[in-house]
Amino acid sequence: xxxxxxxxxxxxxxxxxxxxxxxxxxxxxxxxxxxxxxxxxxxxxxxxxxxxxxxxxxxxxxxxxxxxxxxxxxxxxxx
Length: 79
Prior knowledge:
This protein is mainly alpha-helical. It has helices at 2-14, 17-33, 40-55, 59-76.
């Protein structure tokens, strides 16, 4: 996850919102393909995506994504 966060930070520094969202979605897709949809990593990326949505005033998507992340963390016992 360290590399994920470094790359996400780089994307935020560039300021291209489409690239940030694309990176988050690509990461979720990759984790799904790797069979890691029920993992702490997946929950972390969901959380970052929810923060992104909140930051760009997409509040309904943010709330939904935060809920998905929280529910996954609860299932995994990561409260």
